[in-house]
Each structure stands twice: as C-alpha cells, then as structure tokens.
Design brief:
By secondary structure, this protein is an alpha+beta fold. It is 21% helix and 28% strand. Strands 4-3-2-1-6-5 form a 6-stranded mixed beta sheet.
Length: 126
C-alpha cells in the first residue's frame, strides 16, 4: 500500500478556538469587528463562513454578519483577518440575530452569498 507523502507546516495551523476572537480589519487596516464563530460545511469539511460581530458594547447591540471565508486573508501583524470588501459594504451586508443563524430554513447562507457575489471586488472566489 502506498500513501501520499506531504508535510504540513504546524506554524500555519490555527485552532478554531484561536480563530474565534481574532479581529477583522478592512483593507485600510481599520477594525471592523471580531470573529465570533465558524460555520463549516458538514459534507465537505470546509469553512464556509465566519461570523463577524460588529458594534455593540459588551455583547449588547452587536450585529452578526456572516462573511464568506473566501473574502478573508490572514494578517500576521496585527494578527487578524482582512476582509476583501469595504467598510460600507460590511455595514450594508445582511446581518442576523442568533435565532435566524441557528434556523436551518431561514436561508441566510444563500442571502449572504448573493450579496457578496454582487459586489465588484476584483478577481477571486467569494
């Protein structure tokens, strides 16, 4: 039996617990919010969305914006992720409460993909 040989650089790995809590930045380096959760496609195992929390104080008044994983680029200093759309695009993006996000028939995933797919942001997948 032959097995594929490859190496994984441990320095490039991050736990989901570490990812949740990292800062989201716009392209200009301004803070947009914080990653609260990850949404993983249970069939493919791929991260589909991160849940960005914006606004509010001590968790009160926060808005939850699911952001397609493909829009994020890791930024080592300061550590966080840069979102490949503008601050105004995030403000206008669909936002949901906890009940809507946990509902399997609300359809927020399609709504979010349609919104971000409609933006002119350059090449690359959403």
């Amino acid at each position: 039996m032959t097995t594929a040989s490859y190496t994984i650089d441990d320095a490039h790995l991050m736990s989901a617990n570490t990812l949740a809590g990292l800062t989201l930045f716009d392209r200009g380096g301004d803070k947009l919010g914080v990653i609260k959760e990850l949404f993983v496609n249970k069939l493919t195992g791929q991260i589909e969305f991160v849940l960005g929390a914006t606004g509010g104080f001590l968790g009160v008044g926060e808005k939850f914006h699911p952001l397609p994983w493909g829009l994020l680029t890791y930024n080592p200093t300061p550590e966080g992720y840069v979102v490949a759309v503008g601050k105004d695009d995030i403000r206008a993006a669909p936002a949901y409460d906890r009940d809507q996000l946990t509902s399997t028939n609300y359809g927020w995933g399609d709504q979010v993909h349609r919104y971000f797919s409609s933006l002119k942001r350059g090449p690359g997948p959403v």
